[in-house]
Automatic annotation (TrEMBL):
This is Glycoside hydrolase family 16 protein. GO terms for biological process: glucan catabolic process. SUPFAM superfamilies: Concanavalin A-like lectins/glucanases (SSF49899). Residues 348-359 have a biased composition (Polar residues). It holds the Pfam family GH16_XgeA. GO terms for molecular function: hydrolase activity, hydrolyzing O-glycosyl compounds. Gene3D superfamilies: 2.60.120.200. It comes from Schizophyllum amplum. Residues 18-327 form the GH16 domain.
Amino acid sequence: MIFTILLFSFHTLCAFADYYPLREYSGSEFFNGWEFYDYVDNTTWGNVLYVDQTTAMNQGLAYVTDDGHAVIRVDDQTYIPGGWDFTNRQSVRITTTDTYPFNTLVLIDLVHMPYGCSVWPSFWSFGPSAGEWPAGGEVDIIEGINLVGENQMALHSTEGCYQDRDNGGLGDTIERDCSTPEGCAVREKKANSYGQAFNEAGGGVFALQMAPSGFYIWFWSRDDVPDSISGADSKSTMDTTKDWGTPSAAYPSSGCNDTLWQYFAPQQLVLDITLCGMYLAGIPAVYGATCDDQYACVTDNIVGDGSNYAEAYFEIRWIRTYTGDKALALSSTPSPTFTLSVPTSSTRTGAPSMTTANNSKRRHHTSGFLWRNVLGILLVSFCVLLS
């Protein structure tokens, strides 16, 4: 009886139903806590030049609206002549200075997302690692290209991590092996999850839960956002079991050898918009699937006055992060900076060769990690065993 009570208590604890607020990125202070990537897109080799914060602000590529919404966008004002082999248009990519460990919840409320021929927006995360991508792991929360109608979610990892067939998610699984170029990808089945339809429906909310039992991604169109989210503010706790329902994409830890946290380091969040490129949106067959000309991603879009990029912007009400560790929440005001709570393997390299969704999309800053505390490690390990 005592063992049963203890086991139930640990299962309750490991479920992490209650999440405590860590940080809200919103309003005039939205861009505090983000770094602007100032270089060409040398990850997916998209046809953009990402600009620094000063340039982005001065040229109207990053700003906060009168409603307090943060905007990042592609340059739609500059005339770019044709005739160049490699033509770039200015855009924005930002990365959080904070790194979020397991037992974390991330929510983003968008009223507008980028779309259009050649447009490739993403809201994703990566684990800084001394190894080559995808060591440290990557989570794609929002990703789409050109004029597709559905959001696609994915995990990217080194070899050994898969999505269970009986994962319980609502979306359509495209690939189960997380080490493939596509990652273990899931296509959203709910309406209005991407592009023009998303915007016309008033936007919506996406959520990522990183728990020892697995990674889970939800989407709600504006009219379907749960009361527990729509009625919350930056100081509210969050309960994923209250009215959230079934996630769109579910990745139970049981699908990965040695448990998930051997493949995924604590994650930094990234928002970016790239264009065309060599590895996805600009591939002739991929581009031609939703856009008219199979061979003219750059010349039909990037070249010219840029007016076709009027819809190529994120407009964000807020991004909120939470932790299941109440003590961490209380100790992390006002600006949490996290270190590794559990060990990662530094020997997992073997990144797949660069193809469609690949490789350094995902080549980033590297850093080492520190153990946070022994109790947290033991708890995560126990939770994984129970999952």
